[in-house]
């Protein structure tokens, strides 16, 4: 009985749209994690190979773990980014289980890279085949599809589950293509834009404004 009530409580919290303040904090946290993981850690701990080929290969090998750990931190930043997006949309997730699934899917890539870093100098991912990097990239698109099906008003208002799934899949594909084409710039820029949109929203605003969109709530 306790497990059931605690599970329902978690889903209820995931379903409720975060407040404007929580969304701004989540966006700031996501941006910090992405920049520290993708820029600060590599520039601090990664050595530039010198002219000697042997030493250069050794330096590249020693750079692998810091780069992987930096990517783990940067990809974990997608979790608070999803929270910020939910706050921006201002809608209740329906069903909440889709939001839970989206958060869990977002953990796949950083967990995989963390395992790869722990296994270094051996590799866990490379023996699985050349498609693994693309499959890990696709997890972000899948998470976007799951979340959009739960919180995007147009998806919620879809006349049938099939239309809802098609709309969510389209959003997921667009997110995956954007990350593939413009990474690593698109995620930090999108996070910054979401944070600014939340800051521009009037305090106390909630819900979705059909005329002006989530950023135009009053």
Task: Explain how this protein is built.
- The protein is mainly α and 218 residues long.
- The chain contains ten helices and no strands.
- It is globular.
- The N and C termini lie far apart (41 Å).
- The mean pLDDT is 82.
Poorly predicted spans: none
H/E series: HHHHHHHHHH
The percent range for helix content is over 70%
Which descriptor suits the 3D outline? globular
- SS-based class: mainly alpha
- Percentage of residues in DSSP E strands: under 5%
Number of helices: 10
Return Rg in Å.
Answer: 19 Å
The end-to-end distance, rounded to whole angstroms, is: 41 Å
Query: How many DSSP E strands?
Result: 0
Biggest β-sheet: count, sense, barrel?
Answer: none
Overall mean pLDDT score? 82
How is the secondary structure organized here?
Blueprint: H1 2-15, H2 20-45, H3 53-76, H4 78-89, H5 96-106, H6 108-119, H7 132-151, H8 153-156, H9 161-182, H10 186-200
Helix pairs in contact: 1-5, 2-3, 2-4, 2-10, 3-6, 4-7, 4-10, 5-7, 7-9
């Amino acid at each position: 009985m306790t497990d059931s009530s605690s599970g329902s409580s978690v889903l209820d919290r995931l379903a409720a749209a975060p407040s404007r303040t929580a969304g701004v904090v989540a966006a700031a946290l996501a941006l910090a994690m992405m920049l520290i993981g993708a820029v600060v850690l590599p520039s601090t701990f990664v050595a530039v190979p010198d002219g000697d080929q042997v030493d250069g290969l050794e330096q590249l090998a020693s750079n692998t773990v810091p780069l992987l750990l930096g990517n783990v931190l940067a990809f974990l930043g997608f979790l608070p980014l999803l929270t910020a997006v939910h706050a921006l949309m201002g809608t209740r997730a329906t069903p909440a289980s889709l939001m839970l699934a989206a958060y869990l899917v977002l953990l796949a890539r950083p967990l995989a890279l963390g395992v790869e870093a722990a296994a270094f100098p051996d590799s866990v991912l490379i023996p699985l085949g050349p498609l693994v990097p693309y499959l890990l990239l696709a997890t972000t698109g899948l998470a976007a599809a799951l979340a959009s099906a739960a919180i995007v008003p147009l998806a919620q208002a879809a006349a049938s589950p099939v239309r809802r799934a098609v709309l969510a899949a389209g959003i997921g594909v667009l997110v995956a293509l954007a990350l593939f084409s413009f990474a690593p710039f698109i995620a930090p820029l999108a996070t910054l834009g979401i944070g600014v949109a939340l800051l521009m929203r009037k305090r106390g605003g909630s819900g979705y404004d059909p005329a002006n969109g989530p950023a135009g709530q009053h």
